[in-house]
Amino acid sequence: MKTLPAGELKAQFSKVLEEVQKGESFTILQGKDKKPVAMIVPFRTPAKGSPRQIGILEGKVKLKFAPDFKMTEEELLGLK
C-alpha cells in the first residue's frame, strides 16, 4: 500500500487510477500533520453465484426487530 498527500493525488489522479487498476492501494493523507483520511482500493466484483457471508458479526452485535417488521430474509438480503 502506498501513501499519497491529497495535493499529489489531485496532480497525479490518472496515474493513481492506472495503478489501482493494476491492484495497488493508496492511503490519502491530508493536512500539515499528514493524517490518513481516505483509502483508494481496487474494485472487486463478487463472483457470480458466490454466496454472501452471513453471520460475521455473530456475538458482536445485537439486533432487535419491531413486532410489526414484515420483511422476509430474502427481501432483507436483496434476493427477491
Automatic annotation (TrEMBL):
InterPro entries: YefM-like_sf. Gene3D superfamilies: YefM-like domain. Belongs to the phD/YefM antitoxin family. This is Prevent-host-death family protein. It comes from Leptonema illini DSM 21528. The lineage of its organism: Bacteria, Pseudomonadati, Spirochaetota, Spirochaetia, Leptospirales.
